[in-house]
Structure formats: structure tokens, C-alpha cells
Design a protein that fits this description.
With 122 residues, the chain is of the alpha+beta class. It contains three helices and five strands, in the order H-H-H-E-E-E-E-E. A five-stranded antiparallel β-sheet has the order 4-3-2-1-5. The longest helix is centred in the middle third of the chain and has 14 residues. It starts with 8 loop residues before the first helix and ends with a strand. The mean pLDDT is 76.
């Protein structure tokens, strides 16, 4: 919109006070990356807990293989943003190309092996 005459501060303030609706944070959600939104949803559904000791790579791989072959419910502690950790409950379906597939109550979750800190049976 092109304004052909200057608008006084009083008119502008009246517009803001009585007619303008600020959507607040709603307008910023469109700028978030889809990966970031997905990880925020994932964190929202899982309680952030105290960090468990990180298992070494060989122990972690054996625990994942055992959990996948036994089809039992397990708990995988996931590292998010290098500071937050949460437990993901579910059944490990398998691992392929460094991605662990976990069937949680919500959906099948894909987690990078490097983000898995600890795996233990439920």
C-alpha cells in the first residue's frame, strides 16, 4: 500500500491501539526448519531425564542387535543438541546405514546411531 500523504503519530498510534492485531509468535513458526520442528515435537512427547553413562560403541551395537532380535521393549537414551537427553521407549526394529529404527508408541522413529547414548531393556 502506498501512502500519498504523511500519517501523523497520533493516527498511527490509534491504529495500533484499536485495529492492529499482533499474531505474536505465530508469524515466526513458518521460518522454522522442518527438521527442527520434528525434533521439537519428538522432545515434547518424551520426558527429559538425567543422563546415563554413554556405552562404548561395541557394547551399544551388541545391545541394539540383541534388542532388535528379541523384539522386546527397550529404552534408548537419545542425545539432543549436545545438552538434552531423553529416554525413548519402544522396540528396536533394526539398524541400517547408521540409522536406528525404533517403533515407539507414537510412530517409527529414526535416530542416528551417533545420537544414541545408551540402550537398556525395559
Amino acid at each position: 500500500m502506498v501512502v500519498k500523504h504523511p500519517v501523523s503519530d497520533k493516527v498511527a498510534q490509534n491504529f495500533i491501539d484499536h485495529y492492529y492485531y499482533d499474531r505474536g509468535m505465530m508469524k515466526w513458526h513458518g521460518f522454522m526448519l522442518s527438521d527442527h520442528v520434528a525434533s521439537l515435537k519428538q522432545v515434547k512427547h518424551h520426558k527429559i531425564i538425567q543422563k546415563q553413562r554413554r556405552q562404548n560403541h561395541d557394547v551399544l551395537l551388541k545391545a541394539i542387535e540383541h534388542a532388535a532380535s528379541s523384539h522386546r521393549a527397550m529404552i534408548a537414551q537419545i542425545n539432543i543438541y549436545e545438552r538434552d537427553h531423553f529416554d525413548l521407549y519402544g522396540v528396536i526394529l533394526g539398524m541400517q546405514h547408521g540409522i536406528v529404527f525404533i517403533n515407539s508408541s507414537d510412530a517409527v522413529v529414526r535416530v542416528k546411531l551417533s545420537d544414541v547414548e545408551n540402550v537398556r531393556m525395559k
